[in-house]
Each structure stands twice: as structure tokens, then as C-alpha cells.
Amino acid sequence: KTMNRQMSMRREFGAALSRSIDKLLNTFRERPHTFLTEDDLRCHLVAELLKRRCFSEPQATQDRSISIPVHSEVRWYGESGRLKYRSDVVIVDPESLRVREKTLRLPSKGYGFRSALAIVEVKLRRINGESDEQFSRKIKAEVSRLQKIRKETHLDRAKYYVLCFDKKRDISKLIAEHNENQITLKYQFANQI
Fold first, then answer.
1. pLDDT tens across 117-156, in order?
2. For the whole model, what pTM was predicted?
3. Residue 11 to residues 1, 73, 161, 172: CA-CA distances in angstroms?
4. Which of 186, 188, 136 is nearest to 159 (CA)?
5. Rounded to 5 degrees, what are φ and ψ at 2?
6. How far apart are CA 133 and CA 137, in angstroms?
């Protein structure tokens, strides 16, 4: 039962996440000045996700508290305890989330979970932003960082995304070189600059 629930939940979340990401990409393409900062993009993505019941409905956690699947600025430590990354948006399975210290000690960040459904990183290049090569290197580093998170946390079933938003110049061909099997890389250039 639990396995069927998880598979069904992953499909539902995956479809809803894809629709939310596509809506954000389309909004950026058509109205890029809606977004002044990367935080604007993150906030709009979270707002779009929270419009969907599967992401906004409170659910029971592993330790009998209540939470929702969508969280931002999630810190990773990994197996080694040395991985010191933060992810922009993370969708977790609330049933695997621990937020209360009872029998098991919580990590120093104050929460822990065994199952992430998706990890999303957002990058924005402004009209006066870095060079094509610098932005490309930044995206490559982001992909590499997600690969390290995947390796260290053993969250192999999670979906990993790097969303790239560009107001300066269309470098989609250059960015496409950074595609990796386990990481979904989406690039959007603004139409109306």
C-alpha cells in the first residue's frame, strides 16, 4: 500500500510540478520584468505550487506533526555531514519528515527527512549580468552541485531541476551542453527586453 501511495504521489506531484514550472517559464518569457531577482522567481514558483492542492494540503509528518510538501532554502548535510548546500525549492514527502525531537535527535537544522520528491534550483541573469561564459559556468556548477547532493543524500528517486532565466542574450545552445541524465535543465530567454 505504501509503495503504491508513493508511486501515485510521485506521478501527481511530478505532473503538477511540471505544469508549475512551465507556467513560470512562460510568464518569464512573456513578462520578464515581473521578476527583478532570483528570489522573485523562487517566490513565484512557490506561489504557483501552493495553488495546487497536492502541494498546499497539510499532511501528517513521521513524528505526528503537520506540514506541507513544499519548502524553500533547505539545507543539506549529506552522509558525510560536510555537504553545506542550500536548495531553492524542495518538495518532500511529509510522511518522511521529522520536525520534533523525541526518540531520535534532529539534525542541527531542526528537521530531517528521508524522501524528497523534487529539488529545484533557480538562476537568473539580468540584462546587465555576467558574460555568456560566466553564466554558463554558473549553470554547470549548479548542475554539479545537484549531482553532489544526489550522491551524498542517496535521494535517487527525486527529480532534480535547474531552471535558468536569462534577460541578456539567448545562449540556449551553450546551456544545453550542461544537460545531464539525472538533472533536468530548463532554459528560458526573455522575449520582450
1. 899 999 999 999 999 999 999 999 999 999 988 888 888 8
2. 0.88
3. 15, 24, 16, 28
4. 186
5. -65, -40
6. 6
